[in-house]
User: Fold these one by one.
Assistant:
Number 1:
Amino acid sequence: MKEFVEGSHAIAEIIKATAPGVISAYPITPQTHIVEDLAQMVANKELNSQFVNVESEHSAASVVLGGSATGVRVYTATSSQGLFYMQEVVFNIAGMRLPVVMTCANRAISAPINIWNDQQDSISLRDAGWFQIYAEDNQEVVDFHLIAYRLAEDKRVMLPVMVCMDGFILTHGMETVDIPEQEKVNKFLPAYKPLYKLDTAEPISMGLLADPDYYMETRFAIQETMKESVGYLSEISKEFNAVFGRDYQDLLVEEYQTKDAEKVIVAMGSVCGTIKEVVDEQRAKGKKVGLLRIITYRPFPYARVYEALKNVPKVAVLDKAVSLGAYAPIAVEMKAAFYGKKKGPKVVSSFVAGLGGRDITLESIHEVFRRLTVKEVNSDFIDLKPELLKEEYGE
Amino acid sequence: MENSPLFKSGHTACAGCGQAIAARLVIEAAGANTIVVNNTGCLEVFSTKYPDTAWGVPWIHSLFENSAAVASGVEAALIYLGKKDATNVIAQGGDGSTGDIGLQALSGMLERGHDILYVCYDNEAYMNTGVQRSGLTPFDTNTTTSPAGAQSSGNIRPKKPVPEICLAHGIPYVATASVGFPQDLSRKVKKAISIKGPKYIQIHASCPLGWRHESNQMLPVAKLAVETGLYPLFEYENGVLTGRKQISPKPVEEYLKTQGRFKHLLNNPEEIKKIQEIADNNIKKYNLKLEA
Ligand SMILES: Cc1ncc(C[n+]2csc(CCOP(=O)(O)OP(=O)(O)O)c2C)c(N)n1
Ligand code: SF4
């Protein structure tokens, strides 16, 4: 059913359709509207779920961990400092192979405190053993949550999934979204049947101490599952298309005008909408430019990226996060994707933009294309204000 | 002791570990229809070293400080599944995980009214990491991070009153127990389990390694803590003191001299006097003294 709604409300609607037995969250801007809507749905008896109002994000993550271990579908959402406060539990959930689904409303990290969008929060947790899927618009946000549960609860996977969406831009953005009907949701997403659970009828112990004789294999197993899951994603995407008629292809990347392109920007999330506009504009002028959108950041789709860009001479990676003291996060992956390969771009330049909610405008994207020359650059900041820097370092 | 199907022997606790005995008494009293959520600490480590487990009930460990929150999720899921009435949920941990780093999660669990029994095994320090002080370490105790020395007689503050903190949440049942009084301990667990809502039991559990006494002294040492008034045993139902273990108080020195952690005090009557005052205050506060 098509509705003109706020992104957060669209998520609440789709989470309702997935019928989680336990929901727990702690308020943080810009995630709040999602959980407020869910709380209201529970209060209205529209949603049969235990909504646990916790005293912190650490406990929100712990509550859904406990719920999931008891064998029910669970949901949580957070952002920025909240995600960092959860971090210990976030790693723990993956280590315990619990199919938790979380929305991350992407927001900058303090200090200085800033409630606006960039992607530093989820990217900083890239090593946690969670899938990370980044949406471009709110239709994707909705669809990716359904896909997230299918993926997480797949017996071959049993790993948590984080659906990442740009804070404010998507969480508070109004769009027309097709909210899937319940029958279709039921068809695509069967009821959750846990492999293991806490049950007095069949007592098991979970979360044991693993000494050096056992620990490494647990990490290896997650690594292997992640690698294999690249294929499961396309499978699930196909089934999704069959039920809902929206084709996300392999769910790993989106290629936009890359086939004959001479310059391609690689980016993630809602900024790709802006980049597409610039690409269209440039193409109309006969310029061979394109966009490669990363959808799944973990596991990172190295093979797909290589295929998509192996014949492109110049690539600009646009990160909305930094790894202070090193190459920007997506840039690192791009370098790795081509290292030691026969083909690949001559130039992979790295740009950082949009930190702490600074607007990435059409002009910002033009600037990236302009700075993408034969001279490779590393973590070049776009839209910096030199006058502010002067103030800071002036005599 | 004979083997128990709910908490099997063969775990790797130190000989004479009070926490091992207490944990077994707790689960035996609670019964097979119980799910246990355990914090990181000695009990978790010695009872579940992969691939072995001592637990005959469903048991989960997540992190050091979150058993109260994980248990909240377990309880919520059981309600959703319609299984809560048939299942007890116990969250448990050591004094450090309960009263320090996990206090916030515990407070959240109590305040939300979950039907969970929280059990704190109080061995009065961070034992699993090598006997560092916790908020529940007694006044003047020598630990590795509150060492006695030229300008220190050990831990500078009295025990954090976690039972009173729990009581202040207005929960239906709060009790202290001791591994030195096993029948009283079992009775309290059974009573707690029979009450709906959040419950808190704090069990004094001797630790031969950290307290520095012989492993065969586990029971007598724990008993002395109660008999001197240093570890008052009481129970509160709906905020009212309904039970206390009355004693013919022994001087605290009798307790202090049994353990290496207090050895530095034995030639220091000033400090012993301060500790006697703590015991006297407990005796007065809970009216512990048996009439002659
Ligand atoms: C966040 C975090 N901080 C510190 C630790 C290290 N740690 C593990 S067990 C433990 C001490 C446990 O003390 P307590 O809760 O009193 O239980 P005990 O071992 O004495 O039974 C500590 C400090 C940890 N695992 N996690
Ligand atoms: S250190 Fe103390 S609490 Fe830990 S196993 Fe040994 S006796 Fe038990």
Number 2:
Amino acid sequence: MTATISTTPVTPTRRRRRSARLSPLLVAFVLVPFAVESVWVFWPALQGFWFSLTRWDGMSPPTFVGVDNYVELAGDATFRGALLNTVIWLVLFGGLSVLGGFGMALVLQRERRGVGFYRAALFTPVVFSLVVTALVWRVFYQPDGVADTLLRAVGLEQLIRPWLADPQTALYAVILPALWRQIGYVMVLYLAGLKAIDPALHEAARMDGASSWQRLRHVTIPQLRGVNAVVLSVIVIDSLRSFDIVWSLTKGGPYHSSELLSTYMYSTAFQSLRLGYASAIAVVIFVLALAVILGYLVRAFREEA
Amino acid sequence: MSDFDPGRRRFLGHLGLAGLGALGASSFLSACASSASGPTTGNGSGAVTIQSNLSSPQAKAAMEKLIANFNAQGKGTASLNTIASETFRTQLPTYLTSANPPDLYTWYAGSVANDYASRNLLLDVSDVWKSLGDYPQSLRTLSTDASGKQVFVPMNNYWWGFFYRKSNFAKWGVQEPKTWTEFLALCETLKSKGIPPIGIGLGDTPWVASAWFDYLNIRINGAPFHRELLAGKQRFDDPKVKAVFTRWREALPYFDPKGKAYPFQEATTALLAGKTGMFLIGTFFADAAPKDALGDLDFFRFPIIDPAVPVAEEAPTDGFFASAKTANPTGTKALLGYLSSVEAQEAYVKASSGIVLPANPRAKAADSPLVAKGKAMLDDAKELTQFFNRDSSDALQPTADTALTKFMDKPDQIDAILREWQTSAEKVFKG
């Protein structure tokens, strides 16, 4: 009883003193980046919304056209193709990099001799610039390149085609290098998540006679929920902004067959010089990213509550 | 760590000082430039800045030499900024619309220059043209904007044609074709010998296909129709345009099937290695050719299809235009005057490796049979065109890339392709 009486007055003073000591630095750390971001990020983003309601060639002043750009988008076959390709990209690139990254993390989680080498080998592609990655894969795909030589060696020469120039294969030929890179990244995220799981949980499950599959299903996966949220956000954002690898390998071609929303936005803005229309595409990309991520977060929070 | 920190701080300090220095220098320079622009002292005392997209090593060296020569003459001073051509292309509108723009720019004659001129962004260089009386009328017309004043000063032009190796044609026992029928027969002969007759490189450079469209259109429908089409005054789904593709389809079986997967540079390698028979390309492709192969190269003009149509050739013209907001119009015009002189053009041709023809008719071109043949072909032509994007706009080029590569893949869908092309072209013209 005496103890509670003596402690009550102490806590508020300590709290007050701590906040008073931290505030100037903390405020600076928040406000300075915020000011910089406002000028370089938030303001241009808001301007983007405004430009999406205009017709603008980048030189003359923009003219206000209302929702014309969005009406045109609704009837634009190339845009629909790019949207479909972006969905394919999200499912294939996103899905396979989660599966591949998680699988690799499971295989490489236990400390064994030489496991560091394999982890490093899988992570190496992340380090390379995507433009360099594209150069390497272009050599791989070129006529009579490594891919064709491999197919010939195993007697599948009837499959040989101009991988990046064939509209049937261009999109998938571009997804592969992107995956090759992303899997290492996702693997590292999952490795960190797996390390954070309390070994006692696995111990207990093993004592109860759970098989390794049951432990994976009922212990490991539920424990990774926090990592999943991070991985999902990263994947969705990376899919929607995937641009460099596609641009450096195919530029969205041949004839828009590997076009993503991001490459279509870029070529509309800087090749066709239709900046208003390109801004409308940018707004669509933004809304899509926001919808997917908010949708997931809302669900995740509801489950936790 | 403690060793590292002060070092880093010192480094940052230097960086900051250097930054201040740069700022100081640039404001000093702009002060010079603006003082030169003062109403009383507009006599060209400030340095003229020239933005150049000629970034290949030989062309860059050639430009540096010209600027050094100009500075040595004492009629003014100029400084050269060489910028990667893709950056240059996207930055050009920003340069021209900025408050304190560079003075002079390398660029192409054609619709992009005219477009800037119509927005009053280009300097009237009619004064310079007064001393260019011996330049051909075709170049004067090309450099004149819609209001009748000259806005462009040509430096040189080059030509497009079917290039081949003389030794290979001799080995295969074939001759240059003159007409479309002879051309198709030549293709058939090469194909029967197991050589893909027509090389092309669409992988990274799909615009190369536009040369085929340009040439077929000017051979079948004539240059005036071609220009109107590219200016949006004719329709791409017109039956006259479809006729172009009907002809093109006759040649489609003879294209190198690998050509759609690699860029024109690799198509050049394939031609030089004898893996393709011939290649419709501009002379710039020879920049990448080894010196010993240059002597073995020859070309023939795009075959005649309809003898009634006046012969036109693609002769893209490169040169300069200046910003209307230049702080030093006198100095800029003095530099333009020098760049259009016989001396400067001969120095450029000598220093650059490309096979180009000087714009000044009194300047001597490089002394080689290939260049003489190219010059004769252009002199002989009734009309000159530039190239698809120079006769239309960079914004229209992607619509051609899409339509033409699709046609080469799916010639059956030509009607749908032309309808799509018309739709996307309308969007570009509308803005």
